[in-house]
Amino acid sequence: MKYINELREGESVVEHYLCKSRQSLKSRNGKTYLSLKLQDKTGIVDAKVWDMNKDIQSFAENDFIKIDGSVTVFNNDLQVNVKRIRRSMEGEYDPKEYVPTTDKNMDQMFQQLLDYINTIESPYIKTLLEEIFLRHPLISKEFKYHSAAKSMHHSFLGGLVEHTLSVTQICEFMSGRYQFVDRDILIASAMLHDAGKIMELSDFPENDYTDDGQLLGHIFLGAELIKDTAAKINGFPKQLESLLKHCILSHHGELEYGSPKVPETIEAFILHCADNMDAKTKMIEEMLAADNTQGNWAGFSRMLQRNIRRSDYK
Amino acid sequence: MKYINELREGESVVEHYLCKSRQSLKSRNGKTYLSLKLQDKTGIVDAKVWDMNKDIQSFAENDFIKIDGSVTVFNNDLQVNVKRIRRSMEGEYDPKEYVPTTDKNMDQMFQQLLDYINTIESPYIKTLLEEIFLRHPLISKEFKYHSAAKSMHHSFLGGLVEHTLSVTQICEFMSGRYQFVDRDILIASAMLHDAGKIMELSDFPENDYTDDGQLLGHIFLGAELIKDTAAKINGFPKQLESLLKHCILSHHGELEYGSPKVPETIEAFILHCADNMDAKTKMIEEMLAADNTQGNWAGFSRMLQRNIRRSDYK
Amino acid sequence: MKYINELREGESVVEHYLCKSRQSLKSRNGKTYLSLKLQDKTGIVDAKVWDMNKDIQSFAENDFIKIDGSVTVFNNDLQVNVKRIRRSMEGEYDPKEYVPTTDKNMDQMFQQLLDYINTIESPYIKTLLEEIFLRHPLISKEFKYHSAAKSMHHSFLGGLVEHTLSVTQICEFMSGRYQFVDRDILIASAMLHDAGKIMELSDFPENDYTDDGQLLGHIFLGAELIKDTAAKINGFPKQLESLLKHCILSHHGELEYGSPKVPETIEAFILHCADNMDAKTKMIEEMLAADNTQGNWAGFSRMLQRNIRRSDYK
Amino acid sequence: MKYINELREGESVVEHYLCKSRQSLKSRNGKTYLSLKLQDKTGIVDAKVWDMNKDIQSFAENDFIKIDGSVTVFNNDLQVNVKRIRRSMEGEYDPKEYVPTTDKNMDQMFQQLLDYINTIESPYIKTLLEEIFLRHPLISKEFKYHSAAKSMHHSFLGGLVEHTLSVTQICEFMSGRYQFVDRDILIASAMLHDAGKIMELSDFPENDYTDDGQLLGHIFLGAELIKDTAAKINGFPKQLESLLKHCILSHHGELEYGSPKVPETIEAFILHCADNMDAKTKMIEEMLAADNTQGNWAGFSRMLQRNIRRSDYK
Amino acid sequence: MKYINELREGESVVEHYLCKSRQSLKSRNGKTYLSLKLQDKTGIVDAKVWDMNKDIQSFAENDFIKIDGSVTVFNNDLQVNVKRIRRSMEGEYDPKEYVPTTDKNMDQMFQQLLDYINTIESPYIKTLLEEIFLRHPLISKEFKYHSAAKSMHHSFLGGLVEHTLSVTQICEFMSGRYQFVDRDILIASAMLHDAGKIMELSDFPENDYTDDGQLLGHIFLGAELIKDTAAKINGFPKQLESLLKHCILSHHGELEYGSPKVPETIEAFILHCADNMDAKTKMIEEMLAADNTQGNWAGFSRMLQRNIRRSDYK
Amino acid sequence: MKYINELREGESVVEHYLCKSRQSLKSRNGKTYLSLKLQDKTGIVDAKVWDMNKDIQSFAENDFIKIDGSVTVFNNDLQVNVKRIRRSMEGEYDPKEYVPTTDKNMDQMFQQLLDYINTIESPYIKTLLEEIFLRHPLISKEFKYHSAAKSMHHSFLGGLVEHTLSVTQICEFMSGRYQFVDRDILIASAMLHDAGKIMELSDFPENDYTDDGQLLGHIFLGAELIKDTAAKINGFPKQLESLLKHCILSHHGELEYGSPKVPETIEAFILHCADNMDAKTKMIEEMLAADNTQGNWAGFSRMLQRNIRRSDYK
Question: Which positions fall inside the HD/PDEase domain (chains A, B, C, D, E, F) (predicted)?
Answer without folding.
Answer: 156-289
